[in-house]
Amino acid sequence: MRRARSGGYTLMELITTVLLVGILAAFAVPQYLKTVETNKFDDAVGLTNQIGMTNRMFALDHAGVYTQGAFGGTSCNCNSGTCSSYNPILAPFTKPCALVCCNYLGDQNWSQKPYTFYACDPGSGGGGGPCSSTYVSGASRTNGASPGTTFSPYTAWSVYMNSSGGIYSLGGAPTPTY
Predict the structure, then answer these.
(1) Which residues pair with 26 in a beta bridge?
(2) Which of 97, 137, 160, 162 is within CB 3.0–4.6 Å of 51 for a Cys-Cys bond?
(3) 143 found inside a domain
């Protein structure tokens, strides 16, 4: 006489289910991380475009003087000074926060961004990061892998804007669309 089966799953059913979930996760997690990084890169492209356009406008208004350097810290803290307090002869506009203080660009919490942003001088190539001659702005991925990983192929991603307004990617990053 056969015994009736009590409620529950067999060991084989449980192993099969766990195996299928593991296989699906092996494909889904890397794709998810790539999507997250691509979205961060798209944000960097937009902000690089803004910085580049404002740096070009700034140079038009200030006798061809470009700001240059990395945006850093939590904000530019422009409360203590205004654009009119800058004297381009005594203290040239070399800090990128001049774009914020002179109301060309909105202030950001720069230290919380996954990219480091740069204002570049296309004449000298100064500004650091991805800056070189003909670039007016750029961004490079900050050090560190994506959360939950020990290696990230996305740490080499960077983007720059040239003096004619074209935006280009470096380090295997996706081609910017704007």
Answers:
(1) none
(2) 137
(3) yes
d(CA 160, CA 137): 6
Burial 52-87 (b: 16+ CB within 10 A, else e): bbbbbebbeebeebbbbbbbeeeebebeeeebeebe
pTM over 0.85: no
Chain-wide mean pLDDT for the chain?
A: 81
**In this predicted model, what pLDDT tens digit does every residue of 91-114 receive, in sequence order?**
556 678 888 888 888 888 888 888
Flag whether 42 is in a domain.
no
Task: Output the six-digit token pair for 10.
Answer: 């067999």
Residue 172 falls in which region: left (phi positive, over 0), alpha (psi -120 to 50) or beta? left
Instruction: Report pLDDT for 53.
Output: 94
Domain that holds residue 156: 47-170
pLDDT band at 125 (very low <50, low <70, confident <90, very high): confident
Paired tokens of 164: 């004619």
CB 147 within 8 A of CB 141: no
